[in-house]
Amino acid sequence: MPIATIAGAAINSEIIEPAGPGRDAPAIALSPGSRSPLDEMRQLGTLMAAAGYRVLLHDRRNCGASDVGFDATRSEFEMWADDMHELLGHLALRPAIIGGSSSGARLALTYALRYPDAVSALLLMRITGGSFAVARLIEKYFDVHSRAAAAGGMAAVCETEHFAELIRTRPHNRELLMATKPADFIACMNAWRGHFLAGVDLPLIGTSQAALRSLKMPVCIIPGNDLTHPRARGALVEPMIPDCELHHVTDIEHDLDVTPPEEWKAHYPQMASIFADFLARRLGVPHNAA
Predict the structure, then answer these.
(1) How many helices (H) and strands (E) does the chain have?
(2) How far is Cα 207 from Cα 282, in angstroms, rounded to an integer?
(3) Is 80 exceeded by the pLDDT of residue 287?
(4) Cα–Cα distance between 290 and 287 in angstroms, integer?
(5) String of DSSP letters for 189-212
(6) 3.30.70.1450, 3.40.50.10810, 3.40.50.1820, 3.40.50.970: which CATH number matches 3-129+203-283?
(7) 64 three-class SS
(8) Is the pTM of this model over 0.85?
């Protein structure tokens, strides 16, 4: 997989090409949920490539085989959005359709608000909102790592489940982590936590009603079905977005923190068909059967 230096960080990416001549095919950038590696989007990306799109998958900073990196002057999603904008430019893929699941959907929305002229359409999956999601995710993303740094410095951070996996995937990340001052790391975690916590009463974490109303591109939403990704968030935000379609792939809603990944991935063929049809209608792009 190619590594590009983006804003001083090594970013791992891959393009899934469509069948046949594809250099002029529309581009889609897909991002997974949580801080998962790009492989989490490979199945859906392959289906969208079969529908006639060039699909960019990439590991965001602090994810997969990319570098770790911390910047307290912007939210983590703003950092990811700025990186993705530069990466898409580096690969000559702008403007692009931007899609993502869960944290990937938050990235997609942040990107669309920061770079509206670089977005053809948004594909949003498993959108997140509400106090349960905020409380659960700030613990998972920020608090556990702040506590580790406070108790044992950056060596302890290297031993946490998430960062230990990043080191296994990209050993250079240990050097980057150990070169970070614990106080700076904790300050960044707290700053990112603050951005996240500020979204507790917003329609979606990180996105206000005014921001949703400002979106000019067509948006397709497929809601989730668990406590972190409540089904009702789709119906809540659909009327706030000027050009939006809402589609469901299941009638089941789980009383679980998160629906098991294998269950959600079983819906990918249906989701790819929904997205391909949506894009064909809204952007006028012919497509193969997904």
Answers:
(1) 12, 8
(2) 23
(3) no
(4) 8
(5) HHHHHHHHHTTTTSSBTTB-HHHH
(6) 3.40.50.1820
(7) coil
(8) yes
